[in-house]
TrEMBL record:
Keywords: Signal. It holds the Pfam family DUF4810. This is DUF4810 domain-containing protein. It comes from the Bacteria. Residues 1-20 form the signal peptide. The keyword Signal applies.
Length: 117
């Protein structure tokens, strides 16, 4: 009987180790996108398109997007020269995370000035 109990506990331990931990926020494929963005130039456009589509979905009320993901999408678009797209995502970050308003407010003002030139 002791062996059966030990075996059952071992199997449960192995199975629980296979379950990914649930985080407070939805990160999607953020880490993979960053890796591709900086290390796989041939795949960059496709990875960024997938990332932008993911961020536009906006997560769920019980599992929102992680702080900074909207702003990161905006920065990716800014690097591509899409000022209005960048501003849209910066505004989404500004609206979603009040803590980011001082920095994002400045970014948005600077982009508005660049667009108006």
């Amino acid at each position: 009987m002791n062996r059966k109990l030990l075996f059952a506990v071992g199997v449960l331990g192995l199975l629980s180790a296979c379950v990914a931990p649930q985080t407070m926020y939805d990160w999607g494929q953020y880490e993979q996108t960053l890796f591709v963005h900086y290390h796989e130039p041939a795949l960059k456009k496709e990875a960024l398109a997938d990332y932008i589509a993911f961020v536009e979905q906006g997560g769920r009320p019980d599992h929102p997007l992680a702080p900074g993901l909207y702003a990161e999408a905006g920065t990716f678009l800014l690097e591509e020269g899409d000022l209005s797209g960048a501003m849209r995502f910066y505004q989404m970050e500004y609206d979603a995370w009040p803590e980011s308003r001082p920095m994002l407010g400045t970014l948005i003002e600077n982009l508005e000035a660049r667009i108006d030139e």
